[in-house]
Automatic annotation (TrEMBL):
Signal peptide: none
Name assigned to this protein: NAD(P)-binding protein
Annotated keywords: NADP, Oxidoreductase
UniProt organism field: Mycena chlorophos (Agaric fungus)
PROSITE patterns in the cross-refs: ADH_SHORT
Domain of life: Eukaryota
């Protein structure tokens, strides 16, 4: 139909997060937005704006299938863009990792996006010039202490997206990786170290880490404007580095050896003090 709005589906649109801001920005730019989250009450503000909201759990195959069926019915079987934004944060040292928690994190951050791509492929193919936007992070390129599992999930998402970009190009689907810098988010819950953690002697230093990691955060609304602008270009970049610290990370990751990055992080997070305490020297 002439003049029909292009449909965009966004996962993880709970209030206060990036997905919520993306829904508002895409809507403001004239797109038909399907905002999704596990809890409908978390999207009340979007509903009030006239944005279509749907309940979706990206770790539940039945939920994904039902959402696809509903979107197909409302859009005549077409979807211009799938934004895989839903994600979870996790803070735990690799040596302390609970494998059940790790698997749950990968279910949301990695397996969920793959399941969404598979299910919504027919709608994307029907749209013609379709896009899949994968919300990755600079964390995928950084050895941030206690973030290893989260970092790994974002690295996995970025890697599989690179392959998907090549595989889907002949089908007319563009895959874009958004490498997010330090942006406001509601996915982190920084608690205390467990009593049996190998790192319990540095619990006070651990508690101070969020201050270093959350300096100069970009507001989600400002970040959303960049994301929408870049992802809707006729020929978007394969990887888009956006948000505070993103270009610094790109430079460091591209031109410095890994050992240099380790030294930088050692200074930022005071690793020499860790060593003293963990080896019982202070």
């Amino acid at each position: 139909m002439a003049g029909e709005k292009k449909a965009v589906l966004i996962t993880g649109c709970s209030a206060g997060g990036i997905g919520h801001a993306l829904a508002l920005e895409f809507f403001a730019q004239g797109y038909r937005v399907f905002a999704t989250a596990r809890r409908p009450e978390s999207m009340a503000a979007l509903t009030d704006k006239g944005i279509e909201t749907l309940v979706l759990d990206v770790t539940d195959a039945e939920s994904i299938a039902e959402t696809k069926k509903e979107v197909a019915k409302r859009t005549d079987g077409k979807l211009y863009m799938l934004v895989n934004n839903a994600g979870q944060g996790w803070n735990q040292a690799v040596f302390d990792t609970n494998l059940a928690d790790m698997r749950a994190l990968f279910e949301t951050n990695v397996f969920g996006p793959v399941a969404m791509m598979r299910e919504f492929a027919p709608l994307l193919l029907a749209a013609g010039d379709a896009r899949i936007l994968q919300m990755s992070s600079i964390a995928s390129r950084l050895p941030t202490p206690f973030n290893g599992i989260y970092n790994a999930s974002k690295a996995a998402l970025s890697a599989l997206s690179d392959t998907a970009r090549i595989e889907m190009a002949p089908l007319g689907i563009q895959v874009i990786v958004m490498v997010c810098g330090t942006v406001e988010s509601n996915i982190w819950n920084w608690g205390t170290l467990s009593d049996d953690s190998l790192y319990k002697p540095i619990d006070d230093l651990y508690q101070k880490m969020p201050e270093k990691m959350q300096e100069n955060l970009m507001p989600t609304a400002e970040f959303a404007k960049i994301v929408v602008k870049e992802s809707t270009k006729t020929r978007p970049s394969a990887w888009v580095w956006a948000g505070p610290a993103s270009w610094t990370v790109w430079f460091v990751d591209t031109f410095l050896p890994r050992t240099a990055i380790d030294l930088i992080f050692g200074r930022v997070f005071n690793i020499p003090e860790w060593k003293k305490r963990l080896q019982g020297k202070s």
